[in-house]
Every structure is written in structure tokens, then in C-alpha cells.
Amino acid sequence: MYEVIMYDGGIYRSDELFELIEDVGGVVLMKNRSAQMLTVTMSIPSEDREVVEALCKDIGGQVREVPLAGTEIAIVGPTLGRHHMPHPICDIAEYLRRCGAVTVVMGLSRGRGKNTSQISLAETSTIDEYDACVFMLGNFKACVETKAELLLSKINIPTVLVCGPKPEGIDHTCDAIVYGVGRKASRMREAADRAKLEEVADRIEEVLDDKKKALEEDPPFVHPSEIKALLENYEPIDMCLRPAPLVMHLDGLRAKIPYDEYHREIEDMMVYGRRLGEVCEITPSKINDSSMLIRIKTRSQVAYEDALKAKQ
Which CATH architecture has domain 72-215? Predict the structure, then answer.
């Protein structure tokens, strides 16, 4: 059994930490450096956790639990304007980052107005690229209920609605609802606010656990961390200056390099004696043409395709 933890500390003696992770058979899921500070999200065998924690404390760092590690979550507001993008959205995004997730904040182009709000096919396709999303609506009950029907029902990934009042009759539009937040101009610093941030994280963890259980019934042909380890030494990704050039999903990865230039080379890479293009669906991201999505096929999909080829 593997566990996911995060090291938060300085870069001093960090090379010893990376060597230990490799020695115990672990994987570095994400590494972020800011000046002399370093955060490392890692997956390690449970029996070696005490050894890794001891080294982290010895080199002056802290170890934290990260239940959302290996996921990418979208935090969505009706628009990017000040009216619809208040402090709670940023606070939720930051809190989920501390839980290990990679978060992206986005707004809709025509999300304002109870009776005029819309979500386009391009926007739903973009949101569907993520593992889950948090939709942040406002303080008016009728507006929340109307917008939830218009906007959330078209999204195909696990969705958590965060709003002010308690809505009614919209449970079918999302997987979970957290009320009592809403729009406000102040940061979420009070004890009650922090409790709400924990509640949002807990609801996200619950809906993702359901998704993980569904994946366990027919697991991916290879684990995303194995493909991440394969691609980390690929020169265009190694030289990429964008933050987190490889972002893990529950069923694949996002690689932040242009699809048109590099997808053929990636498809020809070998994993377990197979071309990556045979066991993964590699497509351009809907966000822009400088990223690609790598969706790992399930074992049953690969077996079915092998059976079809054998008949031919």
C-alpha cells in the first residue's frame, strides 16, 4: 500500500530526500520550488513512511497529509469580474492546494444574470478535462437555484456547489453542496470560515473517492505515476518553464507542451512493451494548443482492442 504525503521546507539537503524516495520505491508526484523553499508531494510505501518522515524532520522540513494529491480541480465562478470573483474563490483554491490538489480558477464568459447566464460547449468541454470542479455561486437563493439548473447540469465530472443560502430542489445537478459561504469581500480567516474550507475539501475528497472506486473496478492499464516517471526525462518537458509541466489526474496526465509538435514522439514511447499510443488516448487540450491530455485506457479497453486486432 502506498501513501501520499507532502514535504514542506527548505532546499537544504533536499537531494537526500529525493534519493531516499527513489531507494524505497516511491514516486515524486509534484515538486515546486520558490526561492529557497521547496514543497514535494510524494507517493511512498506505507512501511517506509517513518523513515521518510524522520529524514524530512532532520533536514528541517514538515510533513503533511495531502488527501487530494494527484488531482487537478477547477474552481469556477460565473464571471471573472469583481462581483463574481470574490475572496472565497481564491481561499478555496489555496486551501485545496494545501490538500495536495492542483487548482485552476476560471470564469464563464456569459455567467452573469439569473435569467441570462449561459455556459458554452467549449466551456463545459474545458471543465470536463479536470478531475472535479467547485462551482462558486452567490447569496440569492432564487439566483443560485436557477443558475445551478442552467450551468451545473451540463458538466460531466464530479461537481461541488458552494453558495450562500441553502438551495432546494437542485440535488440532481451536482454531487455535493456546501452552503454558508457566498460572496463577501473579506478573507476566510475566522474559525467558522476555516471550518467551511475544511467542509469543501471533505466534500471534494468524498466525490473523488467515489470516482476512485469506479476506477478500481476497471483500473487503468498503467498507473499515471508510471507515465509521469517516463515523461519526466523527455527533453521538451524537462526544459519546459511552465509551472508543473506534468500534472497528474486520476486517470491520466496533463502535459504542458504543444500537442502538434510532440504527440507523435510521445505516442511512440514504450511502456510495458507497448507503445504509449496503444494504451492511452492523447488529445490536445481545449484550453489552448500548448497542452495535451493523456487519458490512460482501462485494462478491459486494451484487452478488447487486442481481441479485435487478433480477429483481423
Answer: 3-Layer(aba) Sandwich (3.40)
